[in-house]
Amino acid sequence: MHDSVYEIAGDPRVAKFLRTSLTALANGSDPLLQELAEGVLSGQVNLREAVASDAYGEALSSAFERFSAYYDQLDDDEKQRLTSEAAQQLDDLLDERHPKP
Q1: Neighbouring C-beta atoms of residue 100, cutoff 10 Å
Q2: d(CA 2, CA 41)
Q3: Could you report how far apart the first and last alpha carbons of the chain are, in Å?
Q4: What domain of life (predicted)?
Q5: Pairing with 31, which of 7, 22, 41, 97 sits 20 to 30 Å away (CA)?
């Protein structure tokens, strides 16, 4: 995986989660996002530069817009449940438990 992922993540749990997310994109149906993910995973593409490039901008923007529309329609309880679930998944990725804030 390209070193830029570790620099962006700053936390080993987040880096591992990014790897999992990039793997899902590499196996997904969007050819541009597959290309981006495969390049980052192979170490050939800098994630920060790829995300900022015009080549992937439209595909990323579309994906973020879909997520934002989904997230905006959730009520506060559902948002909190998903936040807790995401924290648990991050812990599970490294098979360690961290105290909850």
Answers
A1: 8
A2: 6
A3: 30
A4: Bacteria
A5: 7
Q: Cα–Cα distances in Å, from 5 out to 2, 43, 85?
A: 6, 10, 23
Separation between Cα atoms, residue 59 and residue 61, nearest integer Å: 6
Classify residue 75 by its DSSP letter.
-
pLDDT, tens only, 85-95? 988 887 777 66
C-beta separation of 4 from 47 below 8 A: yes
Side-chain half-sphere CA neighbours of 45 within 13 A: 20
CA distance 42 to 17: 16
What are 24-56's pLDDT values in tens digits?
999 998 898 999 999 999 989 888 888 888 888
Residue among 41, 44, 43, 48 at smallest CA distance from 24: 41
